[in-house]
Amino acid sequence: MFKKILIANRGEIARRVIATCKKMGIQSVAVFSDADVRSLHVRDADDAVHIGPSPAQESYLAKEKIIDAALQHECQAIHPGYGFLSENAEFADRVTEAGLVFIGPPAPVIASMGDKTTAKRVAATAGLSVVPGHPEPVAGIEAAQTAANAIRYPILLKPAAGGGERDARDNLGKGSGPGLSDQPE
User: Please, are residues 160 and 138 in contact by the beta-carbon 8 Å criterion?
Assistant: First the structure.
């Protein structure tokens, strides 16, 4: 059992972890940015550490600042909450390399779940139900339409390697024939 953990998150997420720590007799260390100096999670924790200015890139996403804070406060583990660094395989590796426990999935699992195609393949291999779809990324409108016709409509087109959520017509040639949401003739 841990004696002390650092919660690398803020707000309600951090408060829930802190409340669980209290129930388990584990000391908690909160982190906070300039914007969160008066937040409830800072008050609720046994200790709190300022990790930087308000922008998340300079505070809640600053991997080394968070790891250094955990080490300086003699924590045995870091709980990432969700969002921020919870799905960052590099952070999980750095936490482990620093001699701390990352409370979450191991880095290789995080890395495999970060890629939608790999994640779907892993889930299907584990026997979980997955939405029917094309097993590999498609390149271009013609390949996407061929895959869509095989899957059957309606379909959802998702970027497999980032790029954000955008309408299929924006990415695949607006005005260049039927879009992926059109019904086949």
Answer: no
Residue with tokens 């895959």: 147
Distance CA 21, CA 65 (A): 22
Q: Quote the CA–CA distance of 66 and 116 in Å, as a whole number.
A: 28
Q: Is the pLDDT of residue 9 over 70?
A: yes
Q: Please tell me the distance from the alpha carbon of residue 80 to that of residue 6, in angstroms, as a whole number.
A: 8
Own/partner contacts of 95-104, CB < 8 Å, gap of 24 or more, are: 95/67, 95/70, 98/67, 98/70, 98/71, 99/71, 100/67, 100/70, 100/71, 100/75, 100/76, 101/2, 101/76, 101/77, 102/77, 102/78, 103/5, 103/77, 103/78, 103/79, 104/79, 104/80
Express each pLDDT in 82-96 by its tens digit: 989 999 999 999 999
What distances in angstroms separate CA 158 from CA 56, 127, 154, one per listed residue?
Answer: 26, 22, 13
CA–CA gap between residue 132 and residue 15 (Å, rounded): 38
Q: Which candidate, 161, 100, 27, places its Cα nearest to that of 85? A: 100
Residue 41 to residue 32: CA distance in whole angstroms: 9
